């Protein structure tokens, strides 16, 4: 999952980015409304944390411009404490949720997790595919209830695929959603990570769709067996 943080307060920006990166997300950052608007308009973010009070272009105007251009990613706005009018303007401009300053990073993380799973159509914080469960709160993966140890890159990849279960995800899409803009992106490494994930999980939930990408679905054995015509 790749996120954008737009916040002009450098310390706060650094804290939010560090918190999100610590939770396993790839994060890009912007320090004013123009830069933030440009990134959100051109890069495929899974969610955005957007401050309202920004230099050059305020957060409400940035959000309105994104929505007018059809950019639909979930947006969590940061509002000044007790500025209820900011919240109203923010929601009317297309915000999905808000956090009032000062906030605890845990609250931002929980709200971002909720936005990401809602955007992908999941109501629960725990995603399940056959014997595999992925707990988005704890960042843990288990197969048949047994914990599987994954690196942060492997977790990020599995998390993205499981958020988009049942849909073919191309390698290009994975690269765009797993790495921040400074990362040296090479879609060949995705194959390597998928191979490692398959070995560690030990169950066949990631199918390669030749020439298209990957599809996460429960293993064949769990599906209803097809009736044999010529038994
Ligand atoms: Ca600000």
UniProtKB/TrEMBL annotation:
GO MF assignments: phosphorelay response regulator activity; transcription cis-regulatory region binding
InterPro entries (UniProt xref): CheY-like_superfamily, OmpR/PhoB-type_DNA-bd, Sig_transdc_resp-reg_C-effctor, Sig_transdc_resp-reg_receiver, WalR-like, WH-like_DNA-bd_sf
Record's keyword terms, sorted: DNA-binding, Phosphoprotein, Transcription, Transcription regulation, Two-component regulatory system
DNA-binding region: 124-218
Domain of life of the source: Bacteria
Modified residues (4-aspartylphosphate): 51
Domain Response regulatory: 2-116
Gene3D superfamilies with a match to the protein in the record: 3.40.50.2300, 6.10.250.690, Winged helix-like DNA-binding domain superfamily/Winged helix DNA-binding domain
Pfam families in the cross-refs: Response_reg, Trans_reg_C
A GO cellular component entry from the record: protein-DNA complex
Alphabetized CDD domains for the sequence: REC_OmpR_EcPhoP-like, trans_reg_C
Domain OmpR/PhoB-type residues, every copy: 124-218
GO biological process: regulation of DNA-templated transcription
Protein name: DNA-binding response regulator
Organism: Lichenibacterium ramalinae
């Amino acid at each position: 999952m790749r996120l954008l943080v737009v916040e002009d307060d450098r310390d706060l920006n650094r804290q939010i980015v560090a918190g999100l990166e610590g939770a396993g997300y790839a994060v890009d950052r912007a320090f004013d409304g123009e830069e933030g608007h440009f990134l959100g308009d051109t890069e495929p973010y899974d969610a955005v944390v957007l401050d309202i009070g920004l230099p050059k272009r305020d957060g409400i105007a940035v959000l309105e411009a994104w929505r007018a251009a059809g950019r639909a990613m979930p947006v969590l706005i940061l509002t000044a404490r007790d500025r209820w009018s900011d919240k109203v303007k923010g929601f009317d401009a297309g915000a999905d949720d808000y956090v009032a300053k000062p906030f605890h990073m845990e609250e931002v993380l929980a709200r971002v997790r909720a936005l990401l799973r809602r955007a992908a159509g999941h109501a629960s914080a725990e995603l399940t595919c056959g014997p595999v469960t992925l707990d988005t709160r704890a960042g843990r993966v288990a197969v048949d209830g047994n914990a599987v140890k994954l690196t942060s890159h492997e977790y990020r990849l599995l998390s993205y695929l499981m958020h988009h279960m049942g849909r073919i995800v191309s390698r290009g899409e994975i690269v765009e959603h797993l790495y921040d803009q400074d990362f040296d992106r090479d879609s060949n490494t995705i194959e390597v990570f998928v191979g490692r994930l398959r070995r560690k999980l030990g169950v066949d939930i990631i199918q390669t769709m030749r020439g298209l990408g990957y599809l996460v679905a429960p293993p064949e054995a769990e599906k209803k067996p097809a009736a044999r015509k010529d038994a």
